[in-house]
Design goal:
This protein is mostly helical. About 65% of the residues lie in helices and about 10% in strands. The chain has 5 helices and 2 strands.
């Protein structure tokens, strides 16, 4: 009984779907529509740019830092002016040992590979959904054609 009650609203929507099903949608059109509108696919380009920037950054050597300290300047009495000023210059950098310099670009490359594998999985999933949607539209179109044939008789 509940199945019949559930079928009534579903069957009530078939005429509207039949009118909509009159415009054919190819699989390529469906893929293009999904590629334009799916939020996960719109993020792919941004993720690709971010990973490329991270890989470029990982390929760089650690930055050197230059510092300068001035002491005992512009004081009072004997320390007045710059006569007794002390200037200290420093140059600092990171010393990488144990293959860390090569490990950074390798890690960035692995992250890029993982991201591309994730993109491939998303595209396969979306392709499957699009194929199911197109198959569903073909089934609806067939039902509409059958209903039109029955109405003519």
């Amino acid at each position: 009984m509940w199945l019949r009650m559930a079928a009534v609203p579903a069957l009530a929507t078939v005429p509207g779907l039949c009118a909509w099903a009159g415009t054919p949608l190819s699989l390529d059109d469906a893929f293009a529509r999904v590629a334009r509108q799916h939020p996960a696919l719109r993020l792919i380009d941004a993720e690709r740019e971010q990973l490329t920037a991270e890989a470029d950054l990982a390929a760089l050597r650690p930055a050197l830092q230059v510092g300068m300290d001035v002491e005992n300047a512009f004081g009072q009495g004997e320390l007045r002016g710059l006569d007794s000023a002390e200037l200290t210059l420093s140059l600092a950098g990171v010393l990488e040992r144990g293959g860390k310099a090569q490990a950074r670009p390798d890690l960035a490359g692995r992250r890029t590979d993982e991201a591309q594998a994730g993109v491939g999985a998303r595209l396969r999933e979306i392709r499957t959904f699009a194929q199911e949607a197109v198959a569903g539209m073909h089934r609806i179109a067939a039902l509409c054609a059958r209903d039109r044939d029955q109405c003519r008789n």
